[in-house]
Amino acid sequence: MQESPVAVVTGGSRGIGRGIALALASCGHDIVLNYARNEEAARATAAQITERGRVCRMVRGDVSRIEDHPGILEAASRGFGRVDLLVNNAGIAPRVRLDLLETSPESYDEVMSTNLRGPMFLTQAFARRMLELKKGGTVPHPRIVFISSISAYVASPSRGEYCISKAGLAMLAQLFAARLAGEGIPVFEVRPGIIATDMTAKVKGKYDTLIAEGLVPQGRWGTPEDVGRAVAAIARGDLDFSTGQVIEVGGGFSMRVL
Ligand code: NAP
Question: Does any domain span residue 116?
């Protein structure tokens, strides 16, 4: 019988997902580490999880492909025999930032299927399994997290499809929170601000300037560790009576200051 709690982190090989996986390992979770294609990065993260004394199972799978979902589910369910936490972190920016008047249906479909359609059906599959595990007494406190973005409410016309996907993800978190509240499964939206990862490396100069000019009240880039700590608080159960809440990890970005 697997005694330690098990967390599944999609897109856990790099960036924010790696920060989350390491924070969860540090607070006693064994990890199912999903990644899309970068096996080397996934192995590096897995090694850091092992260094923390936890077990890591790597599972390659594209969250935008529904046919890849059973493999991710079974890595937890069969591999460990339980799943306590699902973190929907995997996500992409548009390959090219294009003005709203220029962007293509292909870019729209790729971003939406990875950032919104995939998490919708992956969470559906995990929620069903969590209900069974809870009823069977294997997992007393299952929880679900969606990693959205401040782009859920900030309009960036040069990457509209990303903003639409994150606004949709915010509603998806609300929907699962509402559906699962009475079942004893809290659901949270964690909303990162500007975080230093491969995703933002291309626009580092632009954001360095904006941050220096005061865009972020706390005056610095966020880190994957900042997001990891917020998810760890959820995993520990510290926020269990707050289902459906949004936790922004943005250095005060959303504050209006006069
Ligand atoms: P990143 O550095 O580009 O890393 C993306 C991660 O997602 C990688 O582990 C990648 O796996 C995985 N991934 C990509 N497409 C996937 C797919 N189809 N199926 C499974 N895994 C996939 O990005 P990040 O900055 O850490 O972003 C992580 C999440 O935070 C995303 O949802 C993003 O929208 C959100 N976010 C980021 C920021 C920011 O400023 N960075 C701000 C707000 C929200 P491989 O290594 O195999 O490619």
Answer: yes
- Has residue 1 got a pLDDT over 90? no
Closest-lying ligand 1 atom to the alpha carbon of residue 88: 32
Q: What pTM value is reported for the model? A: 0.99
Q: What's the CA gap between 162 and 182, in Å, rounded?
A: 32
With beta carbons less than 8 A apart as the criterion, state whether 23 and 7 touch.
no
Question: Which atom of ligand 1 is found nearest the CA of 18?
Answer: 9
Cα of 39 to ligand 1 centre, how many Å?
14
Q: Is the CB of 113 under 6 A from ligand 1?
A: no
Specify the pLDDT at position 59. 98
The parent domain of residue 33 ranges over 6-249
Instruction: Give the Cα separation of 85 and 235 in Å (integer).
Output: 7
Share of the chain above pLDDT 90, in %: 98
Is 254 contained in some domain?
Answer: no
Quote the ligand 1 centre to 209 CA distance (angstroms). Answer: 23
- Domain-embedded: residue 99: yes
Rounded distance from Cα 36 to ligand 1 centre (Å): 10
pLDDT tens track for 81-110? 999 999 999 999 999 999 999 999 999 999
Domain CATH number, residue 186 = 3.40.50.720
Residue 137, φ and ψ in degrees, nearest 5: 85, 5
Evaluate: CB of 195 within 6 angstroms of ligand 1. yes
Gyration radius (Cα) of the chain, Å: 18
- Cβ of residue 165 lying under 6 Å from some atom of ligand 1: no
The residue among 63, 110, 113 whose CA lies nearest residue 86 is 63
Average pLDDT of the residues of the chain:
98
162 is catalytic: yes
